[in-house]
Structure formats: C-alpha cells, structure tokens
Specification:
The complex is a heterodimer of chains A (about 325) and B (about 500). Chain A is an alpha/beta fold. Chain A has eleven helices and ten strands. In chain A, the strands form two sheets. In chain A, strands 2-1-3-10-4 form a five-stranded mixed β-sheet, with helices on both faces. Chain A has a five-stranded mixed β-sheet with strand order 7-6-8-5-9, with helices on both faces. The longest helix of chain A has 22 residues. Chain B has one domain. Chain B has a two-stranded antiparallel sheet with strand order 1-2. Classes of the chains: A alpha/beta (about 325), B mainly alpha (about 500).
Chain lengths: ~325, ~500
C-alpha cells in the first residue's frame, strides 16, 4: 500500500504538475513559488469563476496561484485541507458563510481558530424572488399570501442549514406562519423550480438570478440586507417594508480568503496587499458590478471580528430556526 | 428564415476563421482522448482545458469549448468496447453489448456502430436545439420532483432487468448501489449519514470513484486470474462503418434512441446513463434480435450511443435557453461562457445572438469532426489489444489511481475507489453484476432527494406521485417493465402446458 501510495504520488505530481508545498520557507522571498488555492466548491461555481477572474490579476503582481477544486461537505472538505496545511502562505482557500454556518452548528470537526482570515472577497446580499408569472409582485402581497395559506407556501433554497435557509425561515417569521422548505442542490436548480412553478418563492443571490430578473422571468420582492443593492435600486429591503429579518443580529452571505492558523504576519501582510489591489482593480470591479455582488475588501482585525460576529449570529439563529 | 440566416452567418464566420476551426478540432481531440482513456474523465478534460481558453478572444474560445464538450462525451465507448471499461458513466450501457462483440472479434464493427450512432444522436440533438429549443425547455420546466423521482426509479428497474442473470440478483445489486449512495450529507436536512464522524465521508460516495472502483478494478483483477487469451487487434479497419443497407436495419432504433436521449437531456441533472438505459430497454423490446442483447447485439450499442449523445446535445437546451446546467461538465461550460462575457439564459439571443449562432455552427462542425477523429483515433486505441496483459493491467491500474486522485485532489477518493474495487471483485465472484451498483450510486440520490422533495412540496401527500399525470405514467411503465417479462413467461408456460398434455 505504501509503495503504491508513493508511486501514485510520484505519477500524480509529475503528470498533473501539482505544486505541493515543500517545507523550507524563506519569508522575505515570499512568494517564490506557486500558491495552492483551494476552492472548496465545484469548478464552474461562483467561487470558482471569481477565483479564475482574480488569478491573472494576481499573477501580474507576482502571485502565481494554482487553483484546485476540492468540493464536498458544504466546503468543509477543502477547508479542512487548508486548516491542516503548513502555515507558510503557500496554501490558501475560500471561506464562505455557508461553510461558516455548518461549522457554527457543530456539524463538521472544524473550528474558526484553525484559520487566519486574510481578506473579504465579496458580499452577496440575498434576495427573495418569485416567478415572473406570480400574482404577488410586491413583498406585502406575498407576505399576505403566506398569512392566508399557513403551511402551504413553498420556498426553495440552494442547500440547507445555511443563510438561504435562515432567510427562508425569516420570511415565514415575517408572516408569522409556517412554510414548506424545499432545499435544492444548487442555485440553478432552485431557478428551475421557480420557472416551472413548483415552488412559490426562492432565496437566491443576485449574481445567480440577474439574467432571469432582467428577462422578467423572475421578480425580486425584497433584499435581505440593511441597504438596497446598486444593481437593483427599485427592490426594497425587508426593513424598508417593515419586516425584521435580523432579529438575532446581522448575518451576511460573504466569501473571504483563509490561510491556516499561525500564519507569519509578514506573509499575511503580503497576501492582504496583493489581494486588496487585485480586488480593487478596475477589471475586477467591472466584473463584480456585472455579476451583482459587492466587493468589500476588509481585512485584519476588522475581518476577524466580522467573521466571529457572523459565526455567532448564525449559531444563535440556527438554534432557533433549524430545530423543527 | 431566421435560423437559416443566423446559421449561415455562423458558418460564414467560422469558415473565415481557420483558427476557430482548428481549435474546434483540437478541442474535440483533447476531449475525445480524455473520454477514451480509462481513469481520465470528461469532467477532468473540460476542467483542465477550459481555463486555457481564457486568454483567447471570446468567439474563438467558445468554439474550442464546444469542441471540448462534444469530444469529451464521445470517447467513452472505445474503452467500453475494447476493455469492458466504460470511459464515462453514459458508456456503461454501451459495454453491455460492445465488449461481447469485441470478444467475438468484432471490435471494429462494434466501434463503427457506436461512432455512427453517436454522430446521428448528436445530429438529432443539434436539430432539436436549432428548431424547438425554447418550447422544449419550457416543457421540461413543468416536470417536477415527482417526475424526476419516477424516471430515476424506472432507470433502476430497467438496469436490474436488462443485465444478464436473474432479475432478483439485479435488484440486489441495485439496492447495494442505492445503499452506497446514502453515505454523506443528507441533502434535505443537512444531517451526516454513515460518515462515522469523518469529514471525508461527508462528501459521500461520488459517482466517478464508484464507477472506476466497481467497473475497472474487478475487470483488472479478473484479468489477473485468466489466461492471456484476449483477442488481438484486427489487422485492418476495413468494414468499420456499416453500409447504408445495414444502417437501415437500425435506423428506427437510432432515431428513437436519439429522441429518447434528447427528451431526457432536457431534464437537467438526470445525466446520460438514464437515457442510454431507457433507449436500450426500448431497443431490446422491439428488436427481433432481442435474445442476443447482452451477448453482443449491435442494436444495444446503437441504442446506448445514440441516446447518450442525444442527452449531451439535449442538455445544451436548458443550458443555453434557461442558463441551467445539468451536471458538472455543463456547469463548467456555463462558467466558461460567462467568463467570455456570454450570459446563457432567456435573453441569450438578444444579448449575444451572433455568438449563439457561432456556438450552434461550432457544434455541427464538432459533430462532424467526431466522425473523422473517431475513425482516425480508433486506429491507435485499438492497438491497446496488442499490449500484453502483464503490461496493460498495471498501466490501467495506475491510470485508475491517478485519475481518481485527480478528480478532487483527495487520497480518500482513491481509498474509496480501491475499497469498492475489492468489493466489486468479490461481488462478481458471487455472480452479482456490478453495473446495477454503479447505476444505483448514480440514480439513488436522485430517487431519494427528488421523492422527498416531492413530498415536501405536496405537504406529505403520497398520492402526488400518481395524480401528477406524467409521474403516474412513468410509474405505470416502471411496473410494466418490472412485471411484464415474468407475466409473459408464465403465460407462455400455461399456453405450452395444454399442448404438451395432448
């Protein structure tokens, strides 16, 4: 088995040119080789596309990265690999609120303090959307419809026990009633269910629904955030319409770069600077605007605090929301 | 008229761009090679090469991606026929008859049928795409969780009944496969099942490690225990493609299977294997040669290949018109198109009309390229039969390990693959077929989650499966597929009994 393993490793690394991080590191030269960038989601997903957009911009700054898709367990499998890698700056990964949520609920053997949080990539305010054919084209009438049909209205989300699920529950809470939660395997599958009118509403990101919204096939009713979205200025927040969807503190859908815990401060600074200038580059800003997500590159203490707050809020909400 | 104008614009553009034409063919060759090499997968080929298109200008890059996609879906039948090792999940059914044909010394014929049927299936899908894509996509949207669950059940029942051996053993294999698929995170509640507290098992038993483990490893282990009596590579490839008269005998089968493929392809996330299964079952039902199915009937190869290429093309219908990908490969294609500034979805024709015609023209050229690339490449691939077993088996084993590792960069996948391999080998010793296990792993999660989703939607009302007309119809067909063969057998017995008493 062990010879097989050695042979396999040799063949795999030779044939796939995978850059594995050797041990010795001279920090002042950092980075003097490829950085392994773990995307704990499938190729082609929003995290993957964003990373592949950033990759060439980072390359220009001397940060050469190799993207590896390690999907599974709502991101926990790939992030587990990041947590257990050498904290030398040559392994980084994409943390998201979804992975944070299952960590906060104790569903995976991973802890927040196993990571150094580098910089926030994106904030995706979630939307409540209904099919274009729905007779409820504003938030009030939809909430009224839920009140009139307790336990009948179906709301779809990509995945389960995540932020989308929390906000589906918060929508029902706004109507003070029960609902039917229909989890799907991904955002596009929820859209399919909405277009086929198999569900009455869905909780989705603007980036995954923009096309259908512009075509009129989906109608956004409300934003689960404090402020409206630049790309959809006419869509009110739940707060605008008088509904409180953050009764347990702020929870936000975000993505951020993580490295293993105990990262050298100098390496951390270099990574932060490189990502910050890539994220604020004109090219990436345009990409973000087109795809309806916000770039909000907070880092350092501020990000550590934000991640801790979100994790705590999710833990509290999920205790109250998912125990049914 | 718009179609003709648009298409001729697309073709005119491509013909004026030799670079684009070359990249289509390059994409086809790369995709084809990945699909045709056991252990390497179509998904991997697309994942590795789509990023290479990023620096190219958008229109050229899109042509190459289409070439990759079409090519990667077409190579899988080669190892299925030559080595009984399907290169892609949708080639599983092809190996049922393709490999027995190769054992009879008809490897070239089997591949000729597979290639011609693939191309015809792809053409049927292409014509559906250019003519009736939007209404077809809207029709597909009306199919809900109950219908998906019913189709998954039908696929499971068919695989149990079409493989050689008793239906009971087939069902046992199916249940083992569905059982394996239960491992991992419950998609509806998020609870971990059968993970023993490990993070790795949360991912569940994925399709590709299961396919490589259950199909490739037992085949390799069996070859260790057998004398090296396999057939040699044929000297000439003459008579590869069937003559027109021969093709006519399979014309109905090809066209029916192609349309079955398209119909299932437009249901996102169903995958190519169900299409092949249903088409195979139908072909067997109508073919006079039906007792030879599973023993090397060309009709079986034709049905499987025409259908799985129908699915591949059909899957582009929801992708392009709705922006909904069905599997990882189409999801990557969607990602690639997005990077190049295209937004697949309802407004695709408005926002990027020219590019769409470019895609459709590229698809047709890629399909024709498949025919040429397939005939040329087979010349090289068939030589694998001349490699002595003591070299071939270890080489395939290494490919299986490397390929499995590369799927998700995880050694745990290799452990799962090898574990299932040993299990699959033991199962074959007990004369349990491994094919239904793989189909169980593929369709099990669909059956479970879609059925539960249907129940959530209906508020726990089980009658939803019968009262929804399409779902009810599919379930009725399932019952017929399950019980009709034994009912006919009993009826024949009864009819025969009085005769013998006379």
């Amino acid at each position: 088995m062990s010879t097989l393993k050695t042979l396999g490793i040799a063949v795999a690394s030779a044939s796939l040119l995978t850059a594995m991080a050797p041990l010795a590191v001279a920090q002042s030269d950092y980075p003097d080789k490829d950085i392994r960038w773990v995307i704990p989601w499938n190729a082609g997903g929003s995290n993957d596309i964003m990373a592949r957009k950033l990759q060439p911009i980072l390359e220009e700054e001397g940060f050469s990265t190799v993207i590896e898709n390690v999907p599974g367990g709502t991101g926990a499998v790939g992030m587990g690999q990041v947590a257990s890698a050498n904290p030398d700056g040559y392994t980084i990964g994409n943390g998201t609120s979804s992975t944070l949520a299952i960590m906060a609920q104790g569903k995976v053997p991973l802890e927040n303090d196993q990571f150094t949080h580098i910089i926030r990539l994106s904030v995706d305010p979630l939307l409540l959307v209904v099919p274009g054919t729905s007779e409820y084209d504003d938030l009030d009438s939809f909430i009224g419809y839920m009140e009139d049909n307790p336990g009948e209205v179906r709301i779809g989300t990509p995945g389960t026990n995540n932020l989308n699920h929390i906000f589906a529950a918060m929508t029902a809470r706004s109507a003070d009633t029960e609902y039917r939660h229909v989890p799907q395997s991904g955002g596009s599958q929820v859209i399919k269910d909405l277009l086929g009118e198999h569900i009455e509403a869905g909780v989705l990101k603007p980036s995954e629904t923009m096309e259908q919204i512009e075509a009129g096939d989906l109608v956004p009713l409300g934003v689960f955030a404090d402020e409206r979205i630049d790309a959809l200025p006419d869509v009110p927040t739940f707060e605008d319409e008088g509904y409180d969807v953050f009764p347990y503190g702020p929870v936000v859908q975000m993505g951020y770069i993580e490295a293993p815990a105990d990262l050298d401060p100098e390496v951390r600074d270099k990574l932060t600077t490189a990502f910050e200038s890539a994220l604020t580059s004109e090219e990436f800003q345009t990409f973000a605007a087109e795809n309806g997500f916000e770039v909000s590159p907070i880092s350092g203490e501020e990000l550590e605090q934000e991640v801790a707050d979100v994790a705590q809020a999710i833990e509290e909400v999920s205790d109250k929301v998912f125990d049914d | 008229m718009d179609i003709i104008n648009g298409l001729s614009g697309g073709f005119a553009y491509l013909l004026s761009q030799p670079q684009a034409l070359l990249l289509i063919v390059f994409g086809v060759i790369v995709g084809f090679t990945f699909g045709a090499t056991p252990g390497l997968t179509a998904t991997m080929g697309v994942a590795l090469f789509i990023p290479l298109t990023f620096p190219l200008p958008g229109d050229v890059a899109i042509s190459m991606m289409i070439g990759l996609y079409v090519g990667s879906m077409s190579g899988g039948s080669i190892p299925a026929i030559l080595l009984n090792i399907p290169g892609t999940p949708s080639a599983i059914i092809t190996s049922l008859d393709g490999h027995p044909m190769a054992n009879k010394g008809q490897a070239v014929r089997a591949y000729g049928w597979a290639l011609l049927s693939s191309v015809t299936g792809a053409l049927i899908a292409w014509m559906s795409l250019i003519t009736i894509a939007p209404p077809l996509a809207n029709l597909a949207l009306k199919l809900g969780a109950a219908e998906y669950a019913a189709v998954a059940l039908l696929g499971l029942v068919i695989i149990a009944s079409v493989i050689p051996g008793t239906a009971i053993k087939g069902l046992v294999s199916v249940i083992i496969g569905v059982g394996l698929s239960v491992v991992g995170l419950d998609q509806i509640t998020g609870e971990a099942r059968w993970t023993f507290g490990t993070m790795e098992l949360m991912r569940g038993i994925n399709i590709m490690p299961a396919l490589i483990g259950l199909l490739v490893i037992p085949e390799l282990m069996n070859s260790l225990f057998q004398e090296d009596t396999h057939t040699r590579a044929p000297k000439s490839l003459a008579g590869m493609l069937p003559s027109f008269a021969e093709w006519c005998t399979q014309a109905v089968n090809t066209i029916r299977s192609g349309f079955i493929g398209v119909a299932l392809g437009i249901m996102p996330a169903l995958g190519g294997s169900v299409g092949s299964l249903i088409a195979y079952d139908q072909a067997k039902r109508f073919d006079r040669d039906r007792q030879n199915y599973g023993k090397g009937a060309p009709g079986g190869v034709v049905a499987s290949e025409a259908a799985n290429n129908g699915v591949t093309g059909g899957a582009l219908i929801p992708l392009l018109t709705l922006g909904i990908p069905g599997d990882t490969v189409t999801a990557m294609l969607l990602g690639g198109l997005t990077i190049h500034g295209m937004q697949p979805g309802p407004r695709l024709f408005e926002t990027s009309g020219d590019l769409v015609w470019n895609i459709l023209a590229s698809m047709l050229i890629a399909t024709i390229a498949i025919l040429i690339v397939g005939m040329t490449c087979f010349r090289f691939f068939v030589r694998v039969l001349d490699v002595p077993r003591h070299l071939l088996t270890p080489a395939l084993f290494i490919l299986a390990v490397v390929g499995t590792y590369a799927l998700g960069n995880q050694w745990f996948d290799v452990v799962v693959m090898l574990g299932l391999g040993v299990f699959g080998f033991l199962a074959t010793l007990a004369r349990l077929s491994v094919y239904p296990m793989v189909i169980g792993v593929i369709l099990g999660p669909l059956l479970e989650t879609e059925a539960r989703r249907a129940l959530v939607s209906s508020g726990g009302d089980w009658t939803t499966f019968i009262t929804r007309p399409v779902s009810g119809l599919i379930l009725a067909i399932t019952l017929i597929a399950l019980f009709l063969p034994s009912a006919i057998a009993m009826w024949k017995k009864r009819k025969a009994a009085p005769d013998s008493s006379l």
